């Protein structure tokens, strides 16, 4: 057996011993407080970001580019992964979490600017991002360095995913949608691993966000106010 998998099983044994009694209240049903849409990048520890160790607390969705869009024969709709807890478990908070240095955003940027292509499965994911990022790429200042361009587009992508949710008839008005960026590259000036709020229900003006949400004022910041 692959040694990495053996080590995973060993860690799972520790997990099972620690969590044995924590499933008592959620064995038959779940009512998570939030659904998070995270990039599946291995550096983003999706539940651990929130210091979560409580089963049933967070409904976690992961994919490259933290996308909320699913393509169907009838057009683009809110992904069933995201919609399920909203429709069936009473969850009324969605958190869309991008991260600094996102590879999916980088690949989409390269595809839009240089025409680079990826294997079909990856290309399908990028095709879901391209329509949402194209205007952002065009709006970037010409003299911007590549790393800064990518991190601005990370915010732009989160904004677009939030806007898609807010505009969707499938997501009711009582659902709060928050857009954040997870920083492990010293981009936002806080500690590595901090989450920074950049968008709430489509509002992305920092001053208005801070005035409206003073309880998280210190965590509201953006790289790009366009």
Strand order of the largest sheet: 2-1-5-6-7
* Class inferred from helices and paired strands: alpha/beta
CATH topology of one domain: Beta-carbonic Anhydrase, Chain A
CATH architecture assignment name of one domain: 3-Layer(aba) Sandwich
Shape by Cα distribution: globular
Question: What Rg is obtained from the alpha carbons, in whole angstroms?
Answer: 18 Å
The major β-sheet equals: 5 strands, mixed
Care to describe what's here?
- With 226 residues, the protein is an alpha/beta fold.
- The protein has a domain at 30-101 and 159-219: Beta-carbonic Anhydrase, Chain A, CATH 3.40.1050.
- The protein is built from 6 helices and 7 strands.
- It has helices spanning 3-19, 80-88, 103-114, 120-139, 146-167, 206-212; strands at residues 34-39, 58-63, 69-72, 75-78, 93-99, 176-183, 194-200.
- It has a 5-stranded mixed sheet with strand order 2-1-5-6-7, with helices on one face.
- Helix 3 (103-114) packs across helix 4 and helix 4 packs across helix 5 (146-167).
- The protein is globular, with a radius of gyration of 18 Å.
- 33% of the residues are buried.
- The model has no long low-confidence stretch (mean pLDDT 96).
Topology:
Elements: H1 3-19, E1 34-39, E2 58-63, E3 69-72, E4 75-78, H2 80-88, E5 93-99, H3 103-114, H4 120-139, H5 146-167, E6 176-183, E7 194-200, H6 206-212
Parallel strand pairs: 1-2, 1-5, 5-6
Antiparallel strand pairs: 3-4, 6-7
Can I get a quick summary?
The protein contains six helices and seven strands. It has 226 residues and is α/β, with parallel strands linked by helices.
């Amino acid at each position: 057996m692959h040694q990495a998998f053996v080590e995973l099983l060993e860690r799972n044994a520790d997990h099972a011993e620690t969590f044995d009694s924590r499933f008592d209240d959620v064995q038959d049903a779940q009512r998570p407080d939030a659904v998070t849409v995270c990039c599946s990048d291995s550096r983003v520890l999706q539940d651990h970001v929130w210091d979560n160790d409580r089963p049933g607390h967070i409904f976690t969705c992961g994919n490259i580019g933290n996308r909320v869009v699913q393509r169907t024969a009838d057009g683009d709709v809110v992904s069933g992964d995201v919609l399920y807890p909203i429709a069936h478990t009473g969850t009324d908070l969605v958190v869309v979490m991008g991260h600094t240095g996102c590879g999916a955003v980088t690949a989409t940027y390269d595809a839009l600017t240089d025409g680079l292509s990826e294997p079909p499965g990856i290309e399908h994911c990028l095709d879901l991002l391209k329509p949402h990022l194209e205007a952002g790429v065009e709006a970037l200042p010409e003299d911007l360095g590549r790393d800064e361009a990518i991190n601005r587009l990370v915010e732009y992508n989160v904004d677009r995913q939030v806007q898609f949710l807010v505009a969707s008839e499938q997501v009711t008005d009582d659902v709060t949608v928050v857009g954040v960026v997870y920083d492990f590259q010293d981009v936002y000036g806080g500690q590595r691993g901090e989450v920074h709020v950049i968008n709430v229900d489509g509002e992305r003006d920092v001053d208005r966000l801070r005035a409206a949400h003073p309880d998280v004022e210190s965590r509201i910041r953006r790289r790009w106010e366009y």
